[in-house]
């Protein structure tokens, strides 16, 4: 049985004051037993969040990392080793906003994945298709390529200590959500692709769904057999809404 994970991606949101308020709300949440919870604040607020959530059963992760694992001459980047030193336990790699807006390619994302793991961080590999790709019937092909680059570069065994998050680009921040059946189809395809290489890894890896997940639709999504929780965007900025999603995962 895979343990559900609910992860909040705060994206480029937050001031010291608003983050303090959100931490206060998160500290008051009664989290269900049997699930894991993580939050991914902006890099500026990682130290504040780690300190503010001390003693609370929530992991803190980063939204991005450098392609090189150790600190050095890479202006503007943050090394995975620095994130680990700060107290992070996870890091997002390959989020669609990084792919679409920042132009990150599969090969760069694979390097970030490897760099994160080499420093003891758990990479959360984000995969997903655009609306144009879905309408062209290329969803499984696109997601398979994004996943396959990491498998080819690092071996399927790398996913024994990693997480996958399926986020259709057309459902991120749009209010649109894949139906549970649409999401399940892609999650099942991801697990099948991993199973073709190693059945044990495929059975154990957690695959999250992201894309306009809210308290109102979370339970229906999480009931799907291959959906092991959610990567939550906007709804994670509201402690009460985020708590309701956590409860849905725990049920």
Brief account:
With 251 residues, this protein is of the alpha/beta class.
Give the key terms:
eight-stranded parallel β-sheet; 11 helices; 43% helix
Please indicate the percent range of residues in DSSP E strands (runs of 2 or more).
5-15%
Whole-number radius of gyration? 17 Å
How far apart, in Å, are the first and last alpha carbons?
A: 14 Å
Secondary structure tally, helices: 11
Mean pLDDT: 96
Q: What is the total tally of β strands?
A: 8
Description:
The protein has 251 residues and is α/β, with parallel strands linked by helices. The protein contains eleven helices and eight strands. It has an eight-stranded parallel sheet with strand order 7-6-5-4-3-2-1-8. β3, α3 and β4 form a beta-alpha-beta unit. α5 crosses α7, α7 packs parallel to α8 and α10 packs parallel to α11. The model has no long low-confidence stretch (mean pLDDT 96).
């Amino acid at each position: 049985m895979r343990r559900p994970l609910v992860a909040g991606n705060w994206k480029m949101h937050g001031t010291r004051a608003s983050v303090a308020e959100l931490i206060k709300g998160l500290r008051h949440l009664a989290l269900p037993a049997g699930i894991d919870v993580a939050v991914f604040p902006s890099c500026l607020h990682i130290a504040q969040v780690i300190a503010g959530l001390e003693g609370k059963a929530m992991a803190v992760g980063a939204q991005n990392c450098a392609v090189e694992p150790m600190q050095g001459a890479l202006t503007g980047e943050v090394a995975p080793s620095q994130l680990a030193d700060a107290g992070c336990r996870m890091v997002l790699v390959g989020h669609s906003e990084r792919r679409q807006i920042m132009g990150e390619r599969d090969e760069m994302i694979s390097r970030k994945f490897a760099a994160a793991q080499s420093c003891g961080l758990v990479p959360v590999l984000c995969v997903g298709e655009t609306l144009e790709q879905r309408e062209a019937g290329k969803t499984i092909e696109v997601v398979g390529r994004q996943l396959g680059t990491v498998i080819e570069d690092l071996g399927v065994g790398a996913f024994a200590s990693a997480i996958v998050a399926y986020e259709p680009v057309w459902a991120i921040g749009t209010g649109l959500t894949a139906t549970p059946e649409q999401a399940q189809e892609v999650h099942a395809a991801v697990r099948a692709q991993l199973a073709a290489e190693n059945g044990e890894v495929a059975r154990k890896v957690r695959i999250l769904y992201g894309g306009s997940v809210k308290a109102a639709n979370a339970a229906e999504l999480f009931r799907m057999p291959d959906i092991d929780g959610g990567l939550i965007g906007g709804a994670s900025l509201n402690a009460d809404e985020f708590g309701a999603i956590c409860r849905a995962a725990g049920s």
